[in-house]
Amino acid sequence: MNPQSEKLIAGLKSDSADTRYAAWVSAAAADPEVAPELGKLLVAPQPGVRKAADEALKKLVHSEGRQSGGARRAAVVKGLLGLTAQDRPKWVRTVALRHLSTIGGDEAVAPVAKILLEPELQEEAVFCLERIPGAASDKALMAAAGEVKDNFKPRILAALGHRRTAAAAPMCAAAMTSSNLEIAMAGMKALARIGRNPGSHPKPPEFDSLSRFQQHEFTDSALRYAEGMVEQGAVDEAIGLYKGALERSDEHLQCAAIIGLAKTNSPRAAALIEPLLNSGQRNVRITANKVWPAVKPKA
Asked: Which of 78, 159, 182, 269 lies 20 to 30 Å (CA to CA) from residue 97?
């Protein structure tokens, strides 16, 4: 290490709290070569040293987070990737993955994707990939869905849903047909978030076989997916889903369906809303009357 890096590390190791503080405050301008040493100090015996190293690494990473690229940022990412190696302590790898989620790019995807197969750190790895933008992360998550154990597949599907990965729509639709209910529901929720037609008509889980909470998730997902269909111009498919929600007894689902139907600007939607103008359920009646002026057929 260069003399400045050695001075920083010595300061972080100091018995003096003021010296440690001064060292970590200066770490934003440190040479990325200090990353391996900072990793070692993250698990130092002294709590004060661990704290100082953690803050110094944050300073180093955040100083590059404001930059869109460059050799220095690449060096910081390389240093963090080194801290994710299997021979590093679990906590060091965890911290590195969390930082990579903020500044990592395509170069970080493959190394992080390998960690998806490690049960102890796969949650940290999927969180990291979920936050790294770009097609490389999408592809890595989609590939992992076929490699991880069943108990982790719902988390992978959730990540794809959160990213709204259009290419994953067929995969999510296929997951909906799984005999594993957790996977099936995760596939349904992910497809709803993506909001894209998967090119097939998969059969979702049987509604009556679900718990009360899962039934809410089922209907909420159907409504979310319907909204996506409206955005894509697939109005007929959306109306069919909204009609299903209207058949449920829950007021909030019926109200959500009414609002969704109103956005379709369709005569079919108006025909479904009109009977609800006099609904016995107060909130449903109020919601229907609010949207009716915008959807009623023109005289």
From this structure: 182
Alpha carbons 51 and 67: distance in angstroms, whole number? 25
Which tokens belong to 162? 């959160």
| Rounded-to-integer distance, Cα 125 and Cα 117, Å | 9
pLDDT (tens digit per residue) in 17-56: 999 999 999 999 899 999 999 999 999 999 999 999 999 9
For residue 186, give the 3-state DSSP assignment: helix
Confidence of residue 70 (pLDDT cuts 50, 70, 90): confident
Place of tokens 């005569």: 267
* Selection from 255, 299, 250, 252 nearest residue 276 by Cα: 255
pLDDT tens digits, one per residue of 204-219: 889 888 998 998 899 8
Distance CA 258, CA 152 (A): 36
d(CA 254, CA 285): 10
Q: Residues with Cβ < 8 Å from 102, sequence gap 6 or more?
A: 61, 62, 65, 131
What is the rounded CA–CA span in Å between residue 5 and residue 114? Answer: 31
List the structure tokens of 60: 């180093």
Measured in whole angstroms, the distance separating CA 103 from the mean position of its chain's CA atoms is 16
Determine contact, residues 175/186, Cβ cutoff 8 Å. Answer: yes
Round to whole Å and give the CA distance between 231 and 166: 14
The answer to whether residues 159 and 194 touch, using CB atoms and an 8 Å cutoff, is no
Q: Work out the end-to-end distance of the chain between its first and last CA atoms, rounded to an integer number of angstroms.
A: 81
